[in-house]
Design a protein that fits this description.
About 7% of the residues have low confidence. This protein is 62% helix and 7% strand. Helix 2 runs antiparallel to helix 3. It has a domain of 69 residues. It is elongated. A two-stranded antiparallel ribbon has the order 1-2. By secondary structure, it is mainly alpha-helical.
Amino acid sequence: MSRLHLVLTLMLAACGPSVGAWTKTSASDEQQSRDILECETAARETVARDQAIRQDELAARQPDMIGGGTPVGGVEFSRDLRRYDEQNRRRHLIGECMTGRGYRLESQPTATSP
């Protein structure tokens, strides 16, 4: 693993998901569970569709890539960055969906060491 790959991987890991819970005073626990599941499913389907489109675009461009098509930083780094982007996209889509249904993301305190 190159030094650049290691540094960038550690930077990406530090940008983990925010800690919080979706709340809506008028929603029952059952309704909230359904809404979260529906939003997660819709986000997963959208990201999967986007992945398929990206794969098609990459396959069409493959012969035109210089140097055999090796991405800057290497194949592993490119894969890790793509996964990170997909996770962020999924979280963003879930957030839009839940906000559209009237929920708010409430921050929850994280544990701190003494």
